[in-house]
Amino acid sequence: MIMFYGIYYNSSCLLCSYLLEPNQLKKLFGYIQHPSFDIAADAADAFKDLLTRHKSTVSESLSKNYCWFFTEMNEKLLKSENYITRRQAVKLLGCILLDRSNSCVMTRYVSSKDNLIILMNLLRDQSKNIQIDAFHVFKLFVANENKPPEIVSILVTNRSKLLRLLSAFVYTDDDVFETDKIQVVNKLAVLELQD
Questions:
Q1: pTM as predicted
Q2: Are 86 and 92 in contact (CB under 8 A)?
Q3: Cα–Cα distances in Å, from 177 out to 88, 132, 193?
């Protein structure tokens, strides 16, 4: 029985590696945006499973295909007109970036002004759920101790709007969320432009 699990695990790692190739992921990105809800939902579930199960394989693939993958993720999923697509994408993005095995990917992601702008726009989404999920990614930009100057500049320029927006976030009874929100507000309040 143990041998069966070993074979299954090894073969599932190989399948995962194959499915993480850009040509295969392109198909999955297409299915996620399919007009049929059933197809799109199944594709989104498969996408989530693919990106959260075999952590070392996923981390390696995301590092290798970083530019392509996150361009697709941002343009096709996070900027989608479809509420469900945006919601699932921002939630999955949070899972990916908060996973310790993806720390290098997370550092690279939160160093991009284009990514920051997308997340700031998601913070203003009409959906409270998307706003909360976007906050969990946004806080990584603020918490990054090695923010590039362009990130600092955007945060400082938009500080008053961000502080006003975050002070209106009263959507949850989650103590961890509230603690995170206070930390983000405090960090934003004292953020200075770098010389």
A1: 0.87
A2: no
A3: 19, 9, 27
